[in-house]
Amino acid sequence: MDISLAEIYGNLNLVIPEVVLFLFACLIFTLAVTGKRSAGMLAGWSFFALAVTMVLVLVIGRGTAFGVMFLADGFALIFKIIILVSAMFAVGSSVGTVGRLPAHRGEYFGIILLSAVGMMFMVSAGELLSMFVALELSTVSLFVLAAYDKRNTKSAEAGLKFVILGAVSSAVLLYGIALLYGLTGTTQIAAIKKGLQELYFLTGGFPRGLFVAVILLAAGFGFKLALVPFHMWAPDVYEGAPTPITAYLSVASKAAALAVFLRVFFGGLINAQEVWLPVIAVLAALAMIVGNITAVVQKNIKRMLAYSSIAHIGYILIAVVATNVRGVSSMMMYVMVYLFANMGAFICAIAFSQKTGSDQIADYAGLSRRSPGLAAFLSIFLLSLAGIPPLAGFVGKYYVFLVAIEQGYLWLVMIGVLTSVVALFYYAYVIWCMYFPKEGDYPTDTVPVSPLLRLVLSVAVVGVFIMGIYPRPFLDFAINAARTFLP
Amino acid sequence: MSGILSLMIFIPLLGGVVILFFKQEQKSLIRATATVASAIPLVLSFIMLAQYDPSTAVMQFVEKAPWIPALNVNYHLGADGISVPMLFLTALLSFVSIIASFGIEKRVKEYFAFFLLLQTGMMGVFAALDFFLFYVFWEIMLVPMYFLIGVWGGPRKEYAAIKFFLYTLFGSIFMLVGILLLYFSTTPHTLSFLELIENGPHLPQGLQILVFVFFFIAFSIKIPIFPFHTWLPDAHVEAPTAVSVVLAGVLLKMGTYGLLRISFPMLPYGTNYFIWPMAIIGVIGIIYGALVCMAQTDLKRLIAYSSVSHMGFCLLGMAAVGSVAGIQGCLFQMFSHGLITGALFLLVGVLYDRAHTRQIDAFGGLWLKLPVYSGVMVLFVLGSLGLPGLSGFISEFMVFIGSFPTFTWLTGLGIFGVLLTAAYFLRMVQRIFLGEFNTKWEGKLPEMTFREIFTVTPLAVLMIAIGFYPRILSMWMQPTVENLVRLIAR
Predict the structure, then answer these.
(1) Which residues of A touch B140 (CB under 8 A)?
(2) Sign of torsion, CA A412 A416 A418 A419?
(3) Which residue among A435, A475, A479 sits closest to B151, beta carbon to beta carbon?
(4) Tens digits of per-residue pLDDT, A291-321?
(5) pTM, full prediction
(6) Are strands A70-72 and A63-65 parallel, antiparallel or unpaired?
(7) Which of A148, A161, B306, B376 is the 20 to 30 Å CA partner of B369?
(8) B173:A420 CB<8 A
(9) Rounded to an integer, what distance in angstroms lies between the CA atom of residue A31 and that of residue A101?
């Protein structure tokens, strides 16, 4: 396909937010090497950078740039907002963590911004190779961040594990892309759709190679999403990585991976859904079952949240069975509600470990006495994750179950609701520890929460309540975004 | 008065939020706020009764506004002859329970905030006419209940709290799936109770059976019906007194209310398909609950199991779907059991506060030492075992009249249950109030205080009034029940 110069350079303004964020990342690297800067100052700059980018994302128009390589549609917009908000949460909650690092503070924040740039390109990718490059930019940044606390062997182990398994999964993904290219002669998602359709009409069926490609792509994305059975890395990495990075990983990186997954499967492979839909439905069921049941036995809150986030991806993927506007918007809605509740829960864990140095659930005993506010906030986030109304998590779950029932997937919804009872058990167990301790079984000194973390937590709590009680604007936003994605 | 239902639902919540801004030490201020926040709904419920038109079955005080248009969710409230008595009962028992909770000294602020949140949920369930809204109110109660049992409860409170939470959630998720199935069964899709009731007979039979089973699981765990009742004795025994009162008086009624409001009119085929199993389970509950009561040594556990038995009557009555008397008997039983068992739990609390034990064998001869307490307690016990002239008799009698034509032999067995009820209650009265006085308690058991008498008085008055003149209750529900019978027969 010939693309004129005007098409390539005509809409360059659409990438301004990404470029600006990249320049800010460079600025923060420069600040860091030109003197010893405080973590607070660097975080402030990073936050400013993300806020500016957010404004730019919101005001910049819609369209495509670089031919069809870069799509700035409503779909990308909503995921960019999710990515930027979770990056803001990560930056805001990192100050205390980074303040204790001996060196390389600036790089920490710079790399967060770089990974956000990568994710923003990912969700806008209309072509598989640029998507892959963007994906690598974000994952390589995350490798570094996971291993950032290098004196801690767990963090180092997390980084190494992440690198090796990440590299394997990238290779698998790339092979899947190559197969698709082989079948259709293009890497543009829209053209792949057309190519497969022609292939279907010519031969009266889909070639075997497509099955292999689907399996490879599902495995590749499955790794990024931490889907069972490609989830083995997640608990170790989540446990070892600095907690703000864990939170960021569990939301932003999953949201970005979900977006490209949808771009490829709902965009390029939509007509071949009979091939992949059953596979994804089974993967969703596995994720809910394995994630929730394994979470029950966890003693470490970060590992517990890791398994719970595996389960949540399962809930999101329930909606994959509905390849329509409702399905896509329900996934977006779920990611939004999950963002606030999950970020909030992790930030509570950060606040707790800053004082106590522990991530063990048993050490949360008596937290309701030691820090009533923190205990109340953590309870709210956990109850939202459990899907108890009127908190946000309920709306998210309700909507994905709704679209799946509409498609007649009762068995998938039954697995979803039954595993959410299991989920309630481990979330309520943490609350149990905090509120119903045996007398005299716990230290009585208070657990202070820094004003900054308090602010961040308040934002998350307000989000959880508003999206639960008045979800209308968020739902309308998601539905409109889904309309730009699916005709 | 428009918006009266919203006010009744949300004023307690507002009070709870206000309480959160007080300091833990301002106990009397917190108690006063909680009292006001639960007294206003009670006053409003009188206004509601005054304005309610009992001659029709249509929904009154209706409020409707779009809430989440993308999902067809509306904020939709209304009350008819089934819900009006329950709303009144909820307002009354909540107010009484708040007064009865003045003795709580531990974390007073959180206690009353949770209690008022619980009241909001209870009121909402009885007023909601939209499935989403109903489910939200239904679930919103789990969290305060979990904390109320878990923090302020007895020795095994943690176990009881989580058991309650998991059991009820397990039930409600089935309801959620049932809701979604119903939602897609109508065109245009709707969550409105009224539209779904309208559409009831047009649903495919297989779907009706499936959804009925899903709803039945949810509601029967709440009621609770044998064999889903095991959470109840644990929750009751460990819960603080006032929580037991609303648990027995209001929360259990939500299960039967749900069946009458949702399952029966929306799924007429499913209902008629399952009347025999329902009647059988009901009678098993009556007999089993009564037999288990015989073996209890703990007074509170005894009353908890008596609830299992009494709610069995409700199920038997409503299973007689063709008769107005059966369903009205079920509603009478709901109301009367709320009054009587609520009062019994209050009275057990009175004794426990003084003696710190509830073992039936630990007492004896209390009648001579505590004449007022004993008199009141025996009055309610007689009400509970169905003495003519008190409300319990009326409800059981109506249930039997309703169920006898359809389930003749089962009703006979159920009547045998009344005998067992009398047996275990009289045995309890004999051990606690008659016989030798246990000298261990000499001088340690003061008579009931004015506050304690005040809390049980309205319940006693209503119990006697309904017993002598049942029309003061039946006048509200008559047209609605007749309409319901018609809806089920479609």
Answers:
(1) 388-390
(2) positive
(3) A435
(4) 999 999 999 999 999 999 999 999 999 999 9
(5) 0.94
(6) antiparallel
(7) B306
(8) yes
(9) 17
